[in-house]
Write a structure and sequence with these properties.
Helix 3 packs antiparallel against helix 4. It is built from six helices and four strands, in the order H-H-H-E-H-E-H-E-H-E. A four-stranded mixed beta sheet has the order 1-4-2-3. The longest helix has about 50 residues, at about 50-100. The protein has about 210 residues and is an alpha+beta fold. It has a domain at about 105-210: 60s Ribosomal Protein L30, Chain: A (2-Layer Sandwich). About 55% of the residues lie in helices and about 10% in strands.
């Protein structure tokens, strides 16, 4: 504490010291500038949500992409369905032609039809009805016993019996041609009943109309 009796004495500063002090104060003031406030970084999702036109454009693009995928899938399904149908039809046609070509057999020296032969002939009827453009050649055969002339006549009678059965079951006679080979074209070789029974037969061959008709 300074009393009345005491006198404060200030010693004047040298001009050079005064200049240095002012410079120091200026530098200190510059070093303590407040930091510049930066706003938060923009978020792309938020920006997009605030842009209805952009969102609508993206939605339309996605819808167009989904529509294209659906169209491509529908095309593949259609092609697959066509292929499957063609395969089924081909398999059904192959089965039908096997039925149509099935050989029938006869007893020794007989031309009348056995029950097994009638069953096979009856199975041919719906195939011929479903394929009206097909014409059939029926060829009668015999085993090698007997004279050639007799066997040719027996083979023809066998083919005629098969034709008559089909005609009686609704097949147009003009679609059926008969012929005989007698014993000239055996199915198997041999001089025993097993071979002979395989050679006493009538065979069926499509001669027009095509497999797919």
């Amino acid at each position: 504490m300074v009393t009345d009796s005491q006198t404060l004495t200030f010693e004047p500063m040298h001009p050079r010291h005064t200049i240095l002090a002012v410079v120091a104060l200026a530098l200190a003031a510059g070093c303590h500038k407040p930091p510049v406030a930066l706003g938060p970084a923009p978020m792309s999702g938020a920006a997009d949500s605030l842009n209805p036109a952009r969102a609508d454009s993206i939605a339309r693009a996605n819808a167009a992409r989904q529509a294209e995928l659906a169209r491509a899938q529908a095309e593949q399904d259609s092609l697959r369905a066509v292929r499957d149908r063609e395969q089924r039809e081909a398999a059904q046609n192959a089965d039908a032609m096997k039925v149509l070509a099935a050989t029938i057999y006869y007893d020794f020296d007989r031309a009348d039809l056995t029950e097994a032969a009638r069953s096979l002939l009856l199975a041919k009827v719906p195939v011929l009805q479903a394929k009206p453009n097909i014409r059939i050649r029926i060829t009668g055969h015999t085993d090698d016993r007997g004279a050639s002339e007799y066997n040719l006549a027996l083979g023809l009678r066998r083919a005629a019996e098969a034709k008559a059965f089909l005609v009686n079951n609704g097949i147009d006679a003009s679609r059926l041609t008969i012929t005989s080979m007698g014993a000239e074209q055996p199915a198997v070789q041999g001089d025993n009943e097993e071979a002979w029974s395989r050679n006493r037969r009538s065979e069926f061959e499509p001669i027009s109309g095509g497999a797919n008709q």
